[in-house]
Design goal:
Layout lengths: L2 H13 L3 H4 L2 H10 L2 E4 L5 E3 H17 L7 H9 L1
Antiparallel strand pairs: 1-2
């Protein structure tokens, strides 16, 4: 191992934040208050609570207008399996 690699390890260790700073409850609360992730879409993207509520409200509006498109289990199964 050359000398530059030996000296880089302490530098890297010094650059790591203390776990107490990362995991303080007030830091976690700030993170989670920004966007409450409640699930994930089929493509792996996160779904926030706000997005979910918006989708439900939009669906209810369409239902009230009579424009909501719904599919039976059989139709979905045929579409997936071909």
């Amino acid at each position: 191992m050359n000398k530059s690699n030996k000296n880089s390890l302490p530098t890297k260790i010094d650059g790591v934040q203390e776990s107490e700073l990362i995991y303080k409850p007030e830091n976690l609360n700030q993170t989670f208050r920004q966007e409450n992730i409640i699930g994930y879409a089929i493509d792996g993207s996160s779904v926030s609570e706000k997005e979910f509520v918006t989708d439900i409200v939009d669906a209810l509006d369409c239902l009230a207008k009579g424009t909501l498109e719904t599919y039976s289990s059989e139709v979905v199964k045929k579409k997936i399996l071909g």
